[in-house]
Amino acid sequence: MKHYDAIVIGAGAGGGVAANVLAQAGLKVLILERGRHLTFASTGRDHLRNHRLSQYGHSTGPELEGNPRVFIDETGIAAKLHPHQGGYNNNASGVGSGTLVYGGQAWRFHPLDFRMASTYGVPEGSSLADWPITYEELAPFYERVEQEVGVSGGPPASQMPDRAAYPMPPLPETKKGKRLKEGADQLGWDTQRVPLLINSVPRDGRPACINCQHCVGFACPVDAKNGTQNTMIARALASGNCTLETGAVATRLVVNGDQVIGVRYLLDGIETVVQSTNVFLACGAIESARLMLISGIGGDAVGRNLQGHYYATGAGLMPDPIWDGIGPGATISTIKFNHGNEGVIGGAMMADDFIVLPIVFAKWHRPAHVPAWGQANKDWMKHAYRRFVTVGGPVHEIPNPECRVTLDPSVKDRYGLPVARLSGTTHPETVKTTAFMIERAKEWLVASGAEEVWANPPQLHLSAGQHQAGTCRMGEDRSVSVVDRHGKVHGLRNLFVTDGSVHVTNGGFNPVLTIMALAYRTAQATLVQG
Prior knowledge:
This protein is an alpha/beta fold. The protein is built from 11 helices and 17 strands. The longest helix is centred in the C-terminal third of the chain and has 20 residues, at 428-447.
């Protein structure tokens, strides 16, 4: 059997960062990724089959057949779902994973995001808790990711601690961004440019963003979007210390006593076992929990507290056309309401959206009085699309221990392994906070000149989409947490988790920068500890 210093399972945000930190330190690293190398040429621009809207399939994997999950809805009915269907909560499968197709909003969590229970108390029925680490402990790793992966943006919001300047200036301000800035100024709200993991100027041999209209959900046509596939993983491979196996499906962690001694995986139908000094799980909150459960690791806490993000989004129509076609589209934001809101727990960052595809506009943002088809629908689309603006953002969810990933007792995948079974709903306090934030979004739109505003009221449901987190939460109490403050699994001296599943809470922000910073910190800690 081959032996490596470290095996990283998953080549996404956390796995890519961890692999590079270890490889640059001279360790021999193996990355196992079930997906393949994906490019703009291989994924294309199909408006109905992409990672933003997968109406008839998707372009990023996993394959639609042979990779089901079971979803239990709010009424208790079980449904077997394919990867492109709602309720599956799919992350992109491929080198870079979601970082290949994300919009790349690069937010740090607020210092109070790490102290939610101390700040607000613990709502009945929730598992709200403080993190075992502070913002100040993570801040140096936020900065390393911002500088090494590459973030464009402006000065920090007044509510955030000082930090070093981003390595690149912000992308161009759009017409709608300027209009929203005027509205926020009228309200007396602080605003700042949206930080993005996108080149605003040429960097590291790759060009600047060309401002196309297909960013979030799609690969970049000029490779200006900074994912782990073209930054951290590329550097790890260039070091000569890293091997990447694509199409490699990890099937079990091999445990002996208090350590993981190897990983079983399938490649082209052939099972292989590799040994390693350390193993890093970075498969996403659903699949990392699933692999641990299949391997008999972690106890009852594994798979609990599954969370993602509700989105508090308001939509509005301006009296004049405001669409200018300048991508990616997210330019202005406020974090005024992330904390300190009377009567609710937490809050959310609010920003304008990436350019909305016409089909996404018609499917997700149509107000209730407009029919879904026919001449009236067509007339409304012609009138509304160029006047349409949304603002909103990810709400700080209140975790519920009954939101769970378990193993389905009967459904298996193409390899004969039990699939993930998703169940539960988020906490009612999350719905309350979302409703509060929707009103703030509508207030912002009206102040910016919108002549009509609307929003979909929030409902209680399981939230575990592209920002999935929480199933291997960090903590000191082994009965309710899975990893320690450095991401090491309790009771095992060489198994670490470096994805969003370690998040105790998921912040009122897009979480990718936090995933990367924690992965950097965990990998660095293993080097220090030997």
